[in-house]
């Protein structure tokens, strides 16, 4: 069963625990600048939205890489950057329409979410459940439930 990160921005408080957990998991330091997930702060609305690689089925980053440094992890389905193969050309950063692959100047390579090998630190660290790791087939379930509540799950007038 493939799983994926599911993000519910309505539950995000902007605490940055996901960013801290990600940076610690991948670099051994608590530094939001090194995180592979970012929490965007929309000041005009007060909303906070966690955002990271969506692990696209048709991954443009993977197809764009001229040295095949991005491969699919057979266990998790994550598109993973092999740092020893990556030449830092940044073609994948251009190919990604969501801007979730980042160039790291210190290493001269790119980084992106790799789902932490199947145990995403960001989801484990999120205190509100804004980030969860769920069955990939059910990512729309909460939206379906919300629509069902609006349309047909109301008390009857009888």
From TrEMBL:
Annotated organism of origin: Tibeticola sediminis
Presence of the UniProt keyword Transferase in the record: no
Residues spanning the signal sequence: none
Top-level lineage group: Bacteria
Domain 4Fe-4S ferredoxin-type: 3-32, 44-75, 77-106, 111-136
Pfam families found in the cross-reference section: Fer4_11, Fer4_6
Keyword Isomerase: no
Protein's UniProt name: Fe-S-cluster-containing dehydrogenase component
Gene Ontology molecular functions: 4 iron, 4 sulfur cluster binding; metal ion binding
Stored CDD domains: DMSOR_beta_like
Keywords recorded for this protein, A-Z: 4Fe-4S, Electron transport, Iron, Iron-sulfur, Metal-binding, Transport
């Amino acid at each position: 069963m493939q799983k994926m990160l599911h993000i519910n921005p309505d539950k995000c408080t902007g605490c940055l625990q996901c960013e801290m957990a990600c940076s610690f998991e991948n670099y051994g330091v608590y530094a939001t600048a090194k995180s592979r997930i970012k929490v965007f702060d929309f000041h005009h609305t007060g909303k906070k939205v966690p955002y990271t690689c969506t692990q696209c089925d048709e991954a443009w980053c993977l197809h764009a890489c001229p040295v095949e440094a991005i491969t699919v992890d057979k266990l998790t389905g994550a598109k993973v950057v092999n740092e020893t193969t990556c030449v830092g050309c940044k073609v994948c950063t251009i190919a990604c329409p969501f801007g979730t692959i980042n160039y790291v100047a210190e290493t001269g390579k790119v980084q992106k979410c790799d789902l932490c090998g199947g145990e995403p630190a960001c989801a484990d660290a999120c205190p509100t459940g804004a980030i969860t790791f769920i069955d990939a087939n059910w990512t729309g379930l909460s939206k379906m439930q919300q629509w069902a509540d609006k349309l047909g799950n109301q008390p009857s007038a009888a």
